[in-house]
Amino acid sequence: MIFANPAGAPELACDECGCRWFDRMAGACYECGAEVPKSEIQAFEAALATYYEKTGNRP
Ligand SMILES: [Zn+2]
């Protein structure tokens, strides 16, 4: 799932356990091992791009 942190930046969290620790290499949750769907990662990156565009605050 995708949610916004208090700063307004999108965060990607596990659908299964709600934790925010992902193994980006494996595309799976550290906590419960649930796989993160590619569509979810793409949606997250799109949300992140929108956020950076809005704030002009790229990492
Ligand atoms: Zn999990």
What does this structure look like?
By secondary structure, the protein is of the alpha+beta class. It has a domain of about 35 residues. It is about 30% helix and about 15% strand. The protein is built from one helix and four strands; from the N terminus they run ββββα. The strands form two sheets. The chain has a two-stranded antiparallel ribbon with strand order 1-2. Strands 3-4 form a two-stranded antiparallel ribbon. β1 and β2 form a beta hairpin. The protein starts with a strand and ends with a helix. The model has no long low-confidence stretch (mean pLDDT about 90).
What is this structure, in a nutshell?
With 59 residues, this protein is an alpha+beta fold. The chain is 31% helix and 17% strand.
Layout: helices, strands, pairs:
Elements: E1 2-4, E2 10-12, E3 22-23, E4 28-29, H1 38-55
Antiparallel strand pairs: 1-2, 3-4
Zinc ion is lined by residues 14, 16-17, 19, 29, 31-32, 34.
